[in-house]
Amino acid sequence: RNEGSGAFAGRKLNRRDFLKMGGAGLAGAALLGSAGCGGGSGGSGEIIFSMGPDTDGSIAKLIDKFNKQNKGKLKASHREMPADTGQYYDKLRTEFQAASGDISVIGTDVIWPKQFAPQNWTMDLSDRFPASDQKDFIPVTIEVAEYEDGIFSVPWCSCPDAGLLYYRKDLLDESGISSPPETWDDLKDMAVQVSEEAGVQNGFVFQGSNYEGGVCNALEYIWTHGGDVLSEVTGGDVVIDSPEAAAGLETYASMLSSGAAPEAVANWTETESSANFYNGDSVFIRYWPSLYGGFGDPATTKIKPDQVGIAPIPVDKPGNPTYSCLGGWMMSINANTDIDDDAWKFIEFMTSAQSQKERVIIGGYDPSRKVLYDDPEVAEATPVVKLAKDVLINNVRSRPVTE
Ligand code: GLC
Questions:
Q1: Nearest residue CA, atom 9 of ligand 1?
Q2: Lowest-confidence range among 35-39, 45-49, 105-109?
Q3: How far is CA 213 from CA 209, 265, 346, in A?
Q4: Which atom of ligand 1 is nearest to the CA of 270?
Q5: Using a 6 Å cutoff on CB, does residue 316 contact ligand 1?
């Protein structure tokens, strides 16, 4: 690897970069003495991309295209990681702690860039991904990738993800309800009433299991009741022990105690909750935009897009601001890889407007590049973006970050 033109060239170094460069320089020196061995632990030369399951085949399709375009020069493959983002994180941590350079490109959840960067697990991409390129992306997706004066991920598809409330418009209509719930109490009442009247098993389903998705759900209750986890005012004091946060969590628990939600949701993730709604067994679901991509696809569900409505996450009292938890997926380079230049070529390819467009059309994800929001084919593939644009772009909050 050429240290001179790498991530640190032409930049003012901070202490962390300086230490990192020292390490890299030593590895480089060792390499000189062992030419031809490949060096480090990521010596296969193949670009290994870690990411959750490729449920719609769009990752395989793009990788295939990349490999064809770079035949004889570069080769990439997908290493499948668990769908549960917490379990995926644990696997990555094991790799990082062993200083493995096996995986070169890491599909990262939006919460990871700020977690990985301070540990020097991922490379600073400032030179490869300068401000002049960052401006093409939805701003909040850039903010989550920044740490100190660097940037550690490039936003990809389904970024920004944001919590939304989906409802069965057809069933609400049949019960004489013409608009979706504004408050959590309205949601509870409607869930009980409509599920009973329509003979549908569940009123409201969500991701209540003890994992990252459960954190997102809980935060939305805390935020919409005026609470928070860390203070925005003091810049980091823990403020979760407030009446507002407690009220939010009480409302959360009341979804189960009121019978609006089934007890089982306490163990559900994206997998079970989406299957339940797709199967026609629930009236309301809290989910990410990607759910919308399935409606009208007979392989996924019998429910058609016109049977479904989308609303912001409910609030405590009418008129209060709504908040959705920000999610999404990005791409980073493993700090231990030997092939960071190749890894970068792969990231450039996968996050390009063309590749994102192809993937969005297959899977109905939200793109991270602004230009795609004006593309008619993308709008048709992901109508949810248009329907929920305000929520997606203006009402999202990030999960708390501590050091
Ligand atoms: C979605 C989001 C991600 C979040 C996860 C929780 O994949 O994009 O940010 O952590 O759900 O389950």
A1: 327
A2: 35-39
A3: 7, 12, 28
A4: 12
A5: no
